[in-house]
User: Fold this.
Amino acid sequence: MPGTPFVLSGDRIGRGDMATRAGTDRKRGAMSTEPAWLELRIEADREAVEPVSELLARHGYQNGIVVQEPIIDELSWGEYVTDPAKPVILTTYIREDEASDASLQAVREGLWHLGRIRPVGELAIMRRTEKDWTETWQSFYRVMRVGQRTVIVPSWLEYEPEPGDIVLDLNPGMAFGTGLHPTTRLCLRAIEARLGAGVRALDLGTGSGILAVLMAKLGAAEIVALDTDPVAVDATTATAERNGVANVIRVGHGSLDAAEGDFGFIAANIIANVIIELAGGLAGALEPGGTLVVSGIIEDRYEEVALALAAAGLVLVDLLRETDWVAIVAEKR
Assistant:
């Protein structure tokens, strides 16, 4: 395909050379029962990624921000070298309904204000049906090894497991968390290395359910998987069933306040501001001796998140990095 290569950091559309014209292509008069979505795409420099992501998450598709980083070189098993001098492309979706015009206006206004501080490009909008993006993003997936044993296998591909492999069969649809983004890979590595059998675990912001499924396959006794997005709830339910672990994963709609009881292990792949806001609640939901893994943190925000977790009484025990992204491992002692 022509155009600048990009690494896909979320779940859906794949590359920067897709059509991104401004305006909404509404096919008036077309009769279709398929849900219609408006694809919102914006270029921004790296320091603007966090605020633009938060803006899109607030007004766009919850927990579904695609961050595409320009690739210099592609290594094996989904590892990439990116060019920090080039802009990043962020994409989200808004369901086309009676509220979409107000959401678009809010995004435009927010981007205008952010553009006064950091370089932010023009908002590009494209109308898409679910069939459109499904056919596009499937072409960008391949089998990916993460950590020592975890292997993500798209459900439409075949893979012969090696001895000791933990295979995650994934068909995420429009839910966030496929392992393509560094934040998800960092979480998977931390879970593989630290989660013990028999623990009660929480996957907060579960997305596609990929983290919850790994927890189950590592022997967690019970996993509570929560997300504020109903599409993610459906996706996680389907992922658990596909991987044969639905009996130990309890999927629910909501955030931390919907989690009942204490947990020996919590994973939260969200964004820095939300982690900071929830730091006290996350610490309170951990059992003594429990482990917390938080990801979705751009490197520049690491100290703020670390300080919030420490102020909540947690002890930071490890730091994982990939490109500009960071995951923190903390314990309750």
User: Anything to note?
Assistant: The helical segments are 49-59, 100-115, 130-137, 182-194, 210-217, 230-242, 272-285, 302-311.
